[in-house]
Amino acid sequence: MKRIICLLLVMLVCAFGMQGCASGAVEKKNVKDNVAVSAEKSAKPETETKKGKQMENKLFELAAARRSIRRYSGDRIPDEVIREILKVGMAAPSSFGHRPVEFVIVRDKISELALCKSLGGSQILGADAVIVVMVKQDRGEFWIEDGAVSSAYILLAAEQYNVGACWVQIRNRNGMRKTSDEEVRELLGVPKGYAVLNLIALGGKGESKKGYGESDFDFRKIHYERY
Ligand SMILES: Cc1cc2nc3c(=O)[nH]c(=O)nc-3n(C[C@H](O)[C@H](O)[C@H](O)COP(=O)(O)O)c2cc1C
Fold it and tell me: What tens digit of pLDDT does each residue of 145-196 get?
């Protein structure tokens, strides 16, 4: 009798075990299926994706929360946080993978830097730090794109750390005496062969701005197969 009970117990345990394995396999299959379905759905208009469960999109949440912050709290942004933010900027794609973008972090000369842009430069005055984004010109056809992609990554990374940030244009802008690009390079001792694309002002958020939501975007701007 004891033997029969033992045998029954063993059979029960095995049956549960197999079910567990089987359901694990189903779960894996579902994940795979979901990816396939997601890929299929993403090729269709947005309204159709709404019929199903809303896909998680953490990057959208971050990107939509990011706003240009032009007033700062005065809080210090630790060097380590700026380093983490710049790591993201350096992870951006670049033309031919040349990674021609370099940065100068300015804390002590923010007021001099502001003077390099006669119209609108003063907006960086309250920032805790300013990242100067410059791009090496030696293989340069796509330097603007390289600098811009990296800057966009930096803006997103700043939001991730709840750091206020704003792009301040330098290329094609003027200072008091020369172009803004020339004046910034002079001020910071940037060697020949670089161009300054923009600044990114960083600081604690001194203003709160509503993030974006899906309703802010016109999904008719996405076209499929042809305009
Ligand atoms: C190429 C480029 C140049 C910009 N130049 C400036 C600038 O010089 N000064 C400024 O305050 N904001 C500048 N901005 C920020 C835009 O004004 C801002 O992104 C836009 O108004 C949308 O607001 P949001 O960033 O809060 O979504 C620039 C943004 C880009 C992408």
Answer: 999 999 999 999 999 999 999 999 999 999 999 999 999 999 999 999 999 9
Residue with tokens 């791009």: 135
184 lines ligand 1 (CB under 6 A): no
CA distances from 159 to 61, 62, 165 (A): 10, 7, 8
**Greatest CA separation found in the chain?**
102
Which of ligand 1's atoms lies nearest the C-alpha of 212? 27
Among residues 205, 127, 129, 211, which one has the least CA distance to residue 163? 205
The closest residue, in CA terms, to atom 20 on ligand 1 is: 68
Per-residue pLDDT tens over the stretch 101-120: 999 999 999 999 999 999 99
pTM over 0.85: no
173 within ligand 1 shell (Cβ under 6 A): no
Residue nearest to atom 23 of ligand 1 (CA): 68
